[in-house]
User: Fold these one by one.
Assistant:
Number 1:
Amino acid sequence: MILALMLSQATGVVEGGNQTSAIDKTVFSIDAIDEMRDTLEDLRALRDATPDTLRSTCLDTKAQRIQDLVDQAEQASVATVDAIAAGEEARAEHEFRKVGVALMRTRQLSEEAQLQCAVSVQQEEAAVQLGWSGVQPD
């Protein structure tokens, strides 16, 4: 139920409601992929500007996952257009929803990068200040 609500917010489609028009699907897909690419560029720029290796690695991991989502969304967008052209509404809707899920997940990963990568660095700094090392005594 929560996934359906989040997806409806991302795509503007309410489960069981009217389906999105072909033009709206296309426009949404283009906008979603643009947003995903912008998010990816921002994370990569942040990673490149970060001298901290731990944070850089954390950001790189999130960026790689977002790149995979961008690739999937691009494929789904093309498949949506192909399905619309072929008159296959069910397949078009399925592929369109993939774009919405990829956008949702990208937003989630971006938030995680902001929170988790910063927390990882703060935890490491606290451990260093306390004199802890990554190796536990036997």
Number 2:
Amino acid sequence: MNKYRWAEAFSGLLATFLAIASLAYLLFGLSYNVATSTGRNGTESMLQHIQPTAIIAFCLLLVAIIGVSVGAVCHSRTQNPFWRNVLVFSVSIMVLFTLIGLLSIGPLIAPSALFAILALYLSYTSGPSKTGEGRI
């Protein structure tokens, strides 16, 4: 594998790591103070009050995140167009979720979406030719 293929695989894996870390922070890390009707105070995480439709959306986003890493690594190793299609679909879903959640979770997953776009771009590059020029 040349350096473009290594960069493609690394970008895909980094995008997956950043997205999973962001979602874990969102679900488990954020806590806020609550007061009950009995006067007790405490803290709760976001996971304790998540709606079922949000669970479905998070699962779809998680499948897309995993698809980015699998698509980038498998395409960088085999150059099979199927894995590039997996990468295109997964990056599209990630960018769509980033744009839809721009005012809520979008800023958390935006860095991972940018690395996923970089992995997609690198999957379309073929590296330098024998004349030393890169082709797209």
Number 3:
Amino acid sequence: MLATTSLAWGCASAKTEANAPATADASVAATTQAAPAPAEISRLEVSESAPGARVAIGAQQALVWTTFRDANGDLVIDLPNSRPADGLSDQAFQAGLVASVRVSGQGTPERPLTRVRITTREPAEHRLDVQPDGLAIE
């Protein structure tokens, strides 16, 4: 009986709240960490090369991306946490594989997204290469 009482008293006297503030502090710190600043998409350059073309997307930092083809066969590149620079505009071409490159800013101020849509005159495969200051699509 004495052992049982001591054990119960020892458990009852343990401070259960000692771990609670540390957990609360960790969750507050995790939610208040600043998100990385959005990348600014500063340039779109298109150059024709045999047998295809190259589209360079320039930024001041490395980019995160996803790509897909839409129902029209256009290559769509989504760049989360980025915004197109003021003055960055769509481009259209009279000749060559690439017919147009369109850029738009979407998302919200807290979660910006840049969408680049590349339209080609004929079906084409692509390769995306990571650059320190953007992406290159060939």
